[in-house]
Amino acid sequence: MTAIPSRLITRISEIVGPDNLTRRVEDLHCYSYDGTARPHLPELVVFPHSAGQISEIMKLASTHRVPVVPRGAGTGMTGGVVPVAGGIVMPMTKLDAIVEIDTDNQIGIVEPGVITAEFQNAVRKKGLFYPVDPASLKYCSIGGNAAECAGGPSAVKYGVTKDYVMGLEVVLANGDIITTGARTEKSVTGYDLTRLFVGSEGTLGIITKLIVRLLPIPPYKETFLLTSTSLRRTTEMVSEILNNNIKPCTLEYMDKTAIGAVSTFLDKPPPDSTQALLIVEIDGEKSAVEEQAALFSSLIGDRAEFSLRQATNKEEVEQIWQARRAISPSVHKLRPNKIGEDVAVPRSRIPELVEFIEHLSRELGLIILTFGHAGDGNIHVNIMLDRSIPEEVARAEQAKEQLFSQTIALGGTLSGEHGIGLSKKAFMRYELNEATLELMKRIKTLFDPNNILNPGKIFPT
Q: Which residues, listed in sequence order, are joined to residue 382 by a DSSP beta bridge?
């Protein structure tokens, strides 16, 4: 790690203003970590206000080969914004304008620092809907969502961030400002660079503006809570629902351990015999929703292993979702630390994956719970541990490695929505062959020849 020259800091201060950068150690600590709690101190934190300022800083950083890590809200779960090479952390918090909401063409233009929930609320006032809904939506930023290609519970029907980003403004490592895509539904002018940047984890460029697709607000929604005495039958039900022409906008799953961690959030906690549950939501025109809801109820019928409850008011809906959103913070009552993974498999292989994890938990003597977006096969696996016990840490790392190996064997992927960052880069070869990895590395080198943009991420070392 090379120290940043004092003359460079002076020049950056002239670009952004002395109040928009800091070297105070206590401030550096605040920007040294994300949800993985694996801190590395940067040397400087800079708060730019515009693409122009970022461009000037990147020209200097490129000349002096100083690492730069663009940062959203720091809610990521794979170490994607941890400045492992020191250098500059560049939070996007002051690029937080909703530039335009075009109701006629159903698009929004936003800066990367806009908080996802605030954007959702703004477009809803215009009668529109931005479907991307990660669990951290009240805190995460749209720029960070794009960098990680975030998903969420609605992905089963509406897709993920890449399905809504139509165009970008991006500052490259050398300071060039480029635009990708368009504000039209169709555009095949050259390569699809938009998709290349979405999910690139800040390693190819710094996103400074996004054009995003919006939808009309679904006028009606029904919410169901399906509890079951059989873990396998619950996971099998995911494919059964979708194969019976039922199109839920949400199909969320929780196992018994996850349910136990959040049972206090439910006014009617499920009975002790409950092994798993599904949260199922159906939205659209009222007549269509009612037809789909009736079809869903008839599919469950009088099967003894299932119990179906339909929310009758907004309070009941909110309580169900409060329990789901509380899983991540609540699991720490089980053990002080966790390894949180977001593997995804084809929906039909979910029962095999979950049964494997149950076996792994027993074999290694670890608390491992599963929950997540079963509708698209994206299962969150929390391996609980106490990091002060070395032997337990070793078993947890063993569980992680076996989880990834089994996921790939089932035709799955290492990450459904959290990205690779630091925590999964050592396992990239499980999923991608050397030729694929080398091509990705050459793309990185083309965009960032000096390797200054978020170095140390994605690729195995």
A: 340, 369
What is d(CA 119, CA 232) in angstroms, rounded to the nearest whole number? 38
Query: Could you tell me how far CA 422 lies from the centroid of its own chain?
Result: 15
pLDDT digits (tens, 9 = 90+) for 111-138: 999 999 999 999 999 999 999 999 899 9
Q: Are strands 44-46 and 88-91 parallel, antiparallel or unpaired?
A: parallel
Which CATH fold topology does 98-216 show?
A: 3.30.465
Residues 372 and 324: beta-carbon distance below 8 Å = no
Burial class (CB in 10 A: 0-12, 13-18, 19+), 114: buried
Q: CA nearest 168: which of 128, 126, 202, 206?
A: 206
Q: Quick one: CA dihedral 108, 114, 119, 122, positive or negative?
A: negative
334-430, which class in CATH? alpha beta
Mention every residue, 6+ apart, whose C-beta is less than 8 A from residue 313: none
Domain 220-328 is found in CATH 3.40.50.12160: no
Domain boundaries, the chain: 6-92, 98-216, 220-328, 334-430
Length, in residues, of the chain? 461
CA-closest candidate to residue 193, choices 184, 204, 181, 175? 181
Strand-pair category, 276-284 with 250-255 = antiparallel
203 touches 454 (CB < 8 A): yes
Report the alpha-carbon distance of residue 397 to residue 310 in Å, rounded: 40
- Residue 368 CA, distance from chain mean position: 20
Q: Decide the pairing of beta strands 21-22 and 44-46.
A: antiparallel
Note whether 98-216 and 220-328 share their fold: no
CA–CA separation, 406 vs 340, rounded Å? 16
Specify whether the CB–CB gap between 239 and 347 falls below 8 A: yes
Identify the bridge partners of residue 391 per DSSP, sorted by sequence position: none
User: Which CATH code, of 3.40.50.1970, 1.25.10.10, 3.40.50.300, 3.30.43.10, is assigned to 6-92?
Assistant: 3.30.43.10
* Of 2-6, 152-156, 398-402, the least confident: 2-6
**Using alpha carbons only, how large is the chain's radius of gyration in Å?**
23
User: Taking the CB of residue 283, how many other CB atoms lie within 10 A of it?
Assistant: 22
State the burial class of residue 93 (Cβ atoms within 10 Å of its Cβ: 0-12, 13-18, 19+). middle
* Confidence (pTM): 0.95
d(CA 404, CA 421): 15
CA distance 385 to 366: 7
Mind listing the pLDDT tens digit for each residue in 362-378? 999 999 999 999 999 99
